[in-house]
Design brief:
Layout lengths: L1 H36 L3 H30 L5 H31 L8 H24 L4 H34 L5 H36 L1
Helix pairs in contact: 1-2, 1-3, 1-4, 2-3, 3-6, 4-5, 4-6, 5-6
């Protein structure tokens, strides 16, 4: 029993470290976007490399967690959900890296109109992952608060959908007005969609956190 508690304590520490590393990847993505707005592609390339390193660090932590689960951390009914949760959280960093890489290879000039909406979009994404971080940390502290945070993630996902649709509408308007070419439209549309997917994946993780909280409350 002592060994079980030690394993659970260790995996809880790893879980906290994992979600904080994923949050760090989103902060780095924001830096990538800042370089993108300014067409500072050399610095952007460096930021993308840094983000890839962070994503790799998150993978390593997730694998360490999986080993602890395999060795018996937590009871079987809880273990599966926590493994799924770790994978869902990890997928957030995966999408951040994928989005950054698309920006890196696109080399398109960002249009001035719409930058403000992209900045708002990134702030919502950061807020969402921050709340998700709190939600997961509260699973081992206060289940009621974890549920509140999970619902907050859902609300932020709705806000993100609104700003995503606004950005897409602006992009098509710019194209119709011949202020951007077809390649810029396609690339920015794909980048916008991928940014939205980050929030979708965060919501998926929060849904799993809700399941964990519900099972623990009995």
């Amino acid at each position: 029993m002592v060994k079980l508690f030690k394993r659970e304590s260790q995996v809880e520490k790893l879980g906290k470290q994992h979600v904080e590393t994923v949050f760090k990847s989103i902060n780095k993505l924001k830096e990538v976007m800042t370089c993108f707005y300014a067409a500072e592609f050399d610095e952007l390339d460096e930021k993308v490399k840094e983000l890839s390193k962070i994503e790799h660090d998150a993978d390593i932590i997730r694998r360490q967690m999986e080993i602890e689960y395999y060795n018996g951390a937590f009871l079987p009914f809880d273990r599966e959900d926590r493994i799924v949760l770790a994978e869902l959280v990890d997928s957030v960093a995966d999408m951040a890296e994928e989005t950054a890489f698309r920006i890196c290879i696109s080399r398109i000039v960002f249009p001035k109109k719409g930058q403000g909406d992209f900045e708002k979009f990134m702030e919502i994404i950061l807020d969402t992952i921050s709340v998700l971080t709190d939600c997961i940390e509260q699973l081992d502290v206060n289940l009621g608060e974890a549920i509140v945070k999970a619902h907050k993630v859902e609300d932020l996902e709705d806000d993100a959908d609104i700003i995503e649709r606004k950005i897409l509408k602006t992009l098509y308007q710019l194209y119709r007005e011949e202020k951007i070419d077809i390649l810029t439209l396609i690339e920015l549309k794909n980048i916008t969609r991928e940014l939205g997917t980050i929030v979708d994946r965060a919501e998926n993780a929060s849904d799993r956190a809700l399941i964990i909280a519900a099972k623990r409350r009995g």
